[in-house]
Amino acid sequence: MSQQVVYIDGQFVPEAEAKISVFDHGVLYGDGVFEGIRLYDGNIFRCREHLDRLYDSAQAIAMKIPISKAEFEEILAETCRRNGLRDSYIRAVVTRGPGTVGLSPFKCPVPTIFVFTAQLRLYPDEYYRDGLTVITTAHRRYSSDSFSPRIKSLNYLNNIMGKINAVNSGVQEGLVLSREGYVLEATADNVFVARHGILVTPPVYMGILKGITRDAVIELARADGIEVREEPITQYEVYTADECFLTGTAAEVVPVRVVDSRLIGEGRPGPITLRLIERFRAITTTDGLKI
Ligand code: PXG
User: Fold this and answer.
1) How far apart are CA 137 and CA 276, in angstroms?
2) Which end of the chain is more exposed for a tag (fewer CB within 10 A), N or C?
3) Does 217 score more than 70 pLDDT?
4) Are 114 and 137 within one domain?
5) Structure confidence by residue, pLDDT tens digits, 63-82
6) What are the backbone dihedrals phi and psi of residue 226, each rounded to the nearest 5 degrees, phi first?
7) Active site residue 64
8) What was the pLDDT predicted at 2?
């Protein structure tokens, strides 16, 4: 397969030449932020929302991204164009940049910016048809007063521990609990449950990533006359739900069939889930930035 073109620090280069320093604090300390974005038929889905979140993540870690959002938007579009892509996953990363060894970010004058594309890593069709099997993970989320889970930082080890736990248990995903035992989200997706026609998802203040797919699904559900509540939920609400699904850039809207060995609802994707999958797919090619 031919090499893709990667954007790094102001240049478009073949992927083999896209390298960062071993002294980059993104590598040394996970000091940096990122976004996972999707291109659907030439449309960068909710591009502005992803960039707003990227810049907010940077602001929260006291890092200034040295280019404007308009310039960043153009880099995302140009990376897709140069690779001749119409459908792709796009990863945008901004690290603290190279510096001296030691935690201080003040010795890292120039952030590293890179953007690459990748083949989609969607679940196989059967999971969208039948639903995922998930467990509650053993590793709880750190609390927001330690580090805000709203920051999409390069330190994803808490989520990775959850993923290891899920995969080692032979299932596809894991639900992550707060220290108090509330269900927060999955390892890289937000979670929704439906009961008696009402959709419920944990509120952002509980300590979750404010997912762009989550926000889109809330809007689509409300536009369809479905009541949506952002309320704390426990495992009980998940186990006794009529429907459960996850949302995320990579997964889109994916039904959940089994949680901790409990069959959810009828054991197949319910009407709200199916409707929102359809509604979501319909906006992926229109809502965003045309490259
Ligand atoms: N929660 C967490 C912790 C996430 O990391 C989501 C929810 C869903 O947010 P969006 O904005 O995507 O609807 C995420 C997103 C990857 C990958 O490479 C991970 C995410 C997004 C894209 C790719 O595994 N996480």
Assistant:
1) 26
2) N
3) yes
4) no
5) 999 999 999 999 999 999 99
6) -90, 130
7) no
8) 77
